[in-house]
# Entry
Amino acid sequence: MIAGDNSRHSSFVLLRIGAHRFALPAALVAELAPPVKLHAFPHTSNSVSGVIIRRRRILPVYDAGSLLLGKEASGQQFYLVARCAGEKKELSAIPVSGECEMATGQVQPPDSNSPAHVAGTLVIGEESVDVLNLEALIASAPGNSAGSSRAGVQP
Amino acid sequence: MNAGNERKEKPARRGKPEAVILFYVANQMFAIAAESVQEIRSTDGLAGAANEIDQQVVPKVRHILEWSRRTCYVVNAGVHFGLPVSRPTLVLILRRMRIAVLVDRIDRMTEIPAVYPLPQAFAGKERRWYRGLAYIDDSVIPVVEPSGFLSADEFAALDRAIKPSAPQPEMEGAARA
# Structure
């Protein structure tokens, strides 16, 4: 992770999911975890792919690639551990590539047609990066299925 | 923020140790409290005690089992958990419940140091299925909630479905013979 320009602006962690970059408020991010074992078991929560153990806690792993891109993102070997804003304060992990960096800047309001999980736009040089609202992203997952479960994989 | 090392971690110990039976369904391992299991029987050995029931309301139940003066509903654990079709060979007859559970095989009985709460992210049926999670041999294993195999509504539906066709006690011996 590369420390960038830290000034009076808000700090963000830039992460890569698939071919896209997103930003998360740094205040919500606990750590970038190394590739640890994903433990999967049967369940019906579509946005969750399993759990990891990190710092002696069992953390749920959200399948952010599917939620953001509509498909599982490849090459996501690390986990960004963050706390959801809002009611769901639970520490959670999302798979990311190892390419994360810090950035500072001011957030512009989201476009009127932006999805709910985009809290705003962070402008870094000539690049605009969507700032994620994790809680809204998780809430956007399809409802729990009635009959099918996400079957676990045998460890 | 930092990327940590890769050493194996165990979740912080909370709660108290308890004995569990580890079993497999469709290559997925589960744990169930040993004290909630009354007996483990081979499906072959129950042929005379099990009766097929004709109902579609609760698809995971296809048989009732007359056992120790009780009528148990036999729940196919693979269907219950939405797992691929497997070939169950054992029945866990649960203690103080009218439930028997079809499973593929038993791995072993062991003691787990604690049952960890299911993270809030899991918000579906699994909250009824599991008491929590256990950490065993570098794996996180769901700890089954015995009463989660059949809800009160499912019991009521099954009771209604079998009422006309349930074997009468005096006929039971004849049926087995």
